[in-house]
Amino acid sequence: MGKIVVIGSINMDIATELAGMPELGETVKGQDAVISLGGKGANQAVAAAKLGGDVVMVGMIGNDAFGADALANLNSYCIDVTHVRSVDVTTGLAMILRERGDNRIIVAPGANNAWSDDLLLEEIIAEASIVLLQNEIPFWVVERAVDIAMDHGIPTVFDPAPVDRFPVAFLQKITYLTPNETEFKQLPEDILHGNTKALLVTRGKNGVRVCEADGNVDIATIDVEVKDSTGAGDTFNGAFAVAITNGKSLHAAVRFANQAAAQSTTKIGAQAGMPFLKDIEANLEK
């Protein structure tokens, strides 16, 4: 198995369940707040680690209680946190509103925006077998990481969330793009003309559409009782990286990641709901 380097956000999640989303100016009652660790970067790192991946996390936390909890949490999954830095800014926060298994998320970046030029990205990436990236940290960091990975011939996985007006030239450098359906509609159409091997469009209960230069293939997911979809996309990315670094083919890796993402929705909480390798293997056999 190769080394999985995750470069991205580290947040504390504060979530509550609502009977219905509030209208403008309206106050509604929610259930008790649940505080848990999150951030797309940290989520993907934990997902990969729980599935047996050798994971290195690169990110920023605040010099506060939330930051200390986030670091301890990553350590608990045997994730290499050598390159997680503490800064004098609050740790990133995500406020999650859940409604009947679906969610809406508001992110306050905090320390996730406090990256500096002196981080040794080249040294870190050069030792990776695959690099996972998202868009919850400054774009210049993501862009630099992609360029370094290309120079070293290392594949990249980019989750374009939150979606932005990404330059086509940048997107065409990514090896595997993993947007959801909404994000996919906001991306340019000519991505597959560059370095991109596949566009993996995650579609919830409808599975994943694998788009390659020679055509598209739909890979179905399993039918589960959804309790919380928070972190399902991050689970997919982490699981996909584990499968690819284990030598699985593209379609086999997508099936593995699909299984992991589906199972993650059967429990409450992004990281708490992420499955372990033994859970995936048992269900894949079925």
UniProtKB/TrEMBL annotation:
Domain annotation Carbohydrate kinase PfkB: ranges: 1-275
Cellular localisation: Cytoplasm
Cofactors named for this entry: Mg(2+)
Residues the record lists as binding substrate: N11, M12, D13, G39, K40, G41, A42, N43, E136, D234
Activation/inhibition comment: Activated by a monovalent cation that binds near, but not in, the active site. The most likely occupant of the site in vivo is potassium. Ion binding induces a conformational change that may alter substrate affinity.
Superkingdom of origin: Bacteria
Keywords from the named record: ATP-binding, Carbohydrate metabolism, Cytoplasm, Kinase, Magnesium, Metal-binding, Nucleotide-binding, Potassium, Transferase
Subunit structure, interactors included: Homodimer.
Name the UniProt record assigns to this protein: Ribokinase
Species of provenance: Listeria rustica
Source lineage: Bacteria, Bacillati, Bacillota, Bacilli, Bacillales
